[in-house]
Amino acid sequence: MILSVDTETTGLDPFKGDKPFAITTCDMKGKTQYISIGEDDLIWIDTMLSSDANQCVFHNAKFDILMLGVYGMTVGAKIHDTMIAAAIYNSDENTLKLKELANKYLGVDNDEEEAVKEYVRKNKCSSYDQVPREIMEPYARKDAVITLDLYKYYRTKGVTSDPVYIKEMQLLRCLVDMQRRGVLIDTDFCRREGEKCAVRIKEIEGLIYREHNGINTSSPKQLATYLFDEEGIRCDYFTEKGRPAFDEFHLSKYDHPLIPLILELRELQKVKVTYLDALQEKADDKKQIHCDFFQVGARTGRFSCRSPNLQNIPRGGVVDVRCAFVCRSGYSNYYFDYSQIELRILAHYSQEPKMLEEYNKTDNDLHSVTCQAVFGEVTKEKRTLSKNINFGIIYGMGPKKFCTMCNEQYPDFNMSYTDARSFINKYYATYQKVRTFTWRVPQKILDVGYVKDIFGRKYTTPRDEAYKGVNYLVQGCAAGILKKSMIECHDLLEDKKSNMLLCVHDELVFEIHESEEYLVKQLKDIMEDYETFRVPLKVNIEKTSTNWSDKEPYAVKES
């Protein structure tokens, strides 16, 4: 049986008390059912969902599956997700919302929605569960119909048999388990550090008020008047619109006692509001956060993460926020980081001999090879710049960008545009097949409309942005490698105490139970690949038994 399933919920967070109040279904004959939780029998829908003989179609399946789990319902049926199908069918889709997709591809609207919205407005309802059944039911039934019709549409277009879609559906169950498990947070640490930040913020604001005319440092106009008119400092840096530039990099160039206060104030405010306060707010009653991983959040298929975004947790600074991410009792956290995965993919696709040779060595250091070729010597600073070139080429970095990046990191170098262009030319002279590759990919897009990676995912661009195809292909292939590993690692852990917790950029984070340390080697063997590509894919492993900030290199015990 193929059935679309849609939940109507009291809110969006099943881990903070929100739950479904109705479930609506539609079968292939167009028959719909509206099940009001608390009024109607749930046995048949629970039985249908749990049977692997059935197929369930959702729009944003992860959300509905987690909501159904609030009542102990599990989805053993084969899963389809029209939201993911939409992203694979058209990577340029402006929106993945159900109503807009239905209007665009099916030419239908859910006219019943206006009655629901009108009732909510007139009665100032805080959630849809306060809407009477006779108004809510027609709207919910129509959503279920639209979801199934979208599934039929994408099926006729071959999306549901596309290997990329099939893999994404396998990955979905992994993401459900990751989000349900969540990450343990030291909320006491967040509270203490947040209070310290608040005290220091108040101190700085007092200093600014007493010693710098009480200006509002958040106001560019007031800041410009104070620094350049009253204090007589010359304004040397401007935005593209001709206004004074007050970003961290340019502000730090000025020599004035107010500047370090502003920079510290900004950092304290960002850390407190964006991280310390947000983590406490998002934590459930067990001090766990359950971030939402969006598997089609980018054109390349790379993950995006929200509520909260754990992809950008800073290291160090005024507060080391990573100290807030702690291990559960009886577990240690292991961090499996793919080593230079994008550069290895670049070496594979470009078939650049020097890169292939270096990556096939036991002890390799491509950044030092690049540094010697471009700068004529290897120093710590120049190796860092060489690393920027290596990765920057993938993103289409030119001389202007490289020059700016260099001068921001190492102002003493005083690099000119001409210098930067010369260095990049030396890079391409060293890695000639990379230059050819960066020409070949855009030309392929211009010729056939797309370029495809080894997993079958197609990448398209507007004709005048075909150069972006290099980035899409390399990043997308890296995302495919991560996703393949996640699926296989999830299968390994299915009947274990250990769990996969996070995917952060090119890194997978696992919590390994103290009785299952043997799994570390098995996970490493799954993730590493010595056969598929022209260079080996390797992972570096770190471990902590306390918190994220304390992780240290871990050597796998070979059997």
Instruction: Determine the CATH topology of the domain at 2-161.
Output: Nucleotidyltransferase, domain 5
The mean pLDDT is: 94
CATH superfamily of the domain at 2-161: Ribonuclease H-like superfamily/Ribonuclease H
CATH architecture annotation of the domain at 2-161: 2-Layer Sandwich
Helical content, roughly? Answer: 40-55%
Strand content: 5-15%
Would you count the extended β strands for me? Answer: 16
Strand order, sheet with most strands:
3-2-1-4-5
Q: How many helical stretches?
A: 20
Secondary-structure-based class equals: alpha+beta
Broad shape = globular
- Give the CATH class of the domain at 2-161: Alpha Beta
Terminus-to-terminus distance: 47 Å
User: Mind describing the biggest β-sheet?
Assistant: 5 strands, mixed
Radius of gyration: 27 Å
Unreliably modeled segments = none
